[in-house]
Specification:
The complex is a heterodimer of chains A (about 140) and B (about 180). Chain A is of the alpha/beta class and about 140 residues long. Chain A has three helices and eight strands, in the order H-E-E-E-E-E-H-E-H-E-E. In chain A, the strands form two sheets. Chain A has a five-stranded mixed beta sheet with strand order 5-4-3-6-7, with helices on one face. A two-stranded parallel sheet of chain A has the order 1-8. In chain A, strand 3 and strand 4 form a beta hairpin. In chain A, helix 2 packs across helix 3. The relative contact order of chain A is 0.18. By secondary structure, chain B is of the alpha/beta class. In chain B, strands 4-3-2-5-6 form a five-stranded mixed beta sheet, with helices on one face. In chain B, strand 3 and strand 4 form a beta hairpin. Chain B is elongated, with a radius of gyration of 30 Å. The termini of chain B are far apart. The chains are: A alpha/beta (about 140), B alpha/beta (about 180). Chains A and B meet through helix 1, strand 2, strand 6, helix 3 and strand 7 of A and helix 1, strand 1 and helix 3 of B. Strand 2 of chain A pairs antiparallel with strand 1 of chain B.
Chain lengths: ~140, ~180
């Protein structure tokens, strides 16, 4: 009588057919969650440096205003005029009620332009602002 | 004798074993190419817009008001005296500390006023000093009361609320004036 080794008849390898699906799920998750908001910055600016800076974790509610060294104002991908700023920001606030406006202003610019923008923002009730600054190390 | 040999046909299905690798490559590409840079800066809340004819003047006593004027020549005036920027923090800390236990209507207000020609960088440095002073007092308070550092305190927690009540950061951007 021959001894036969008892072996399970079932296959022992992991089914890999669904592996691509799992990976695709991961891929889709990362593609959806990462915000790819790259702007064409048309103005030249150097950010000021500061110590007591905070991080804005929620990038989705941030809207940027760039002001270059030549005092040109950029919102999204366009250079705009100060007069249009109110309207644009009003629409932004309608879309995102708790919008944070981040100022990316060249450090050698004058306060006049910043004050003007602030006044426009106050008129359309975009009151949460942030002066973008690099960490002074 | 004719040998009838069955032709060996290639399998008709696409090999799926490498699919996972392809998907992995894509995944890695997206992971690497997306930049998650967090915006850092100094947060402020602008005062509400009030039309010219509805403005009400509120008198604020000199004991709770700190004026910070920055003129076009780069002079920083703290309570109308020329003051070096890096020392603003130390000067403010004492005054903020003394007002921790006072009610809300007696807390400190820092009023910042600038000229149109003031350098933006200088303005940021000054605001930074004020913020740093507030943060330091908050940190001291949190450490002595709960033994926690500022970053350990969670957002919207009871502790954060208490910090906000006790040491509110009130930086007031002065209304621009028209000089005749």
């Amino acid at each position: 009588m021959a001894f036969e080794k008892k072996r399970a008849k079932t296959k022992q390898d992991i089914p890999t057919a669904s592996l691509p699906d799992i990976i695709f799920m991961l891929l889709l998750f990362f593609m959806v969650t990462t915000t790819l908001k790259e702007f064409n910055v048309l103005v030249k600016f150097t950010l000021p440096e500061a110590e007591a800076i905070e991080k804005i974790e929620n990038k989705r509610i941030v809207s940027y205003i760039w002001v270059g060294y030549d005092e040109r104002i950029q919102i999204d991908d366009n250079i705009i005029d100060l007069k249009e700023l109110g309207n644009i920001m009003y629409k932004k606030r309608e879309a995102i009620p708790n919008v944070i406006v981040s100022f990316r202003v060249d450090k050698n610019s004058k306060m006049g332009i910043v004050t003007d923008i602030q006044q426009e923002l106050r008129k359309v009730h975009c009151r949460r602002i942030n002066y973008s600054a690099k960490f002074k190390s | 004798m004719v040998k009838l040999k069955k032709r060996n046909r290639g399998s008709a299905d696409i090999p799926t074993s490498s699919m996972a690798d392809i998907a992995f490559l894509l995944l890695i590409f997206f992971l690497v190419s997306t930049t998650i840079d967090v915006d850092t800066g100094i947060g402020l809340v602008l005062p509400e817009w009030v039309p010219e004819d509805e403005k009400v003047e509120v008198k604020i006593g000199p004991d709770r008001l700190i004026t910070l004027n920055i003129n076009e020549f780069g002079d920083v005036l703290l309570n109308n005296e020329v003051f070096p920027v890096p020392r603003i923090k130390d000067n403010l800390i004492e005054r903020i500390r003394s007002k921790i236990e006072l009610p809300a209507e007696k807390k400190l207000i820092v009023s910042v006023k600038t000229d149109r020609k003031t350098n933006y960088n200088l303005y940021i440095q000054a605001i930074d000093q004020v913020k740093a002073a507030y943060f330091q007092v908050r940190e001291e308070y949190a450490l002595s009361k709960w033994g926690k550092k500022l970053y350990e305190i969670k957002e919207n927690s009871e502790e954060e609320k208490e910090l906000r009540d006790k040491i509110p950061i009130s930086i007031s951007i002065a209304e621009p004036q028209v000089v005749k």
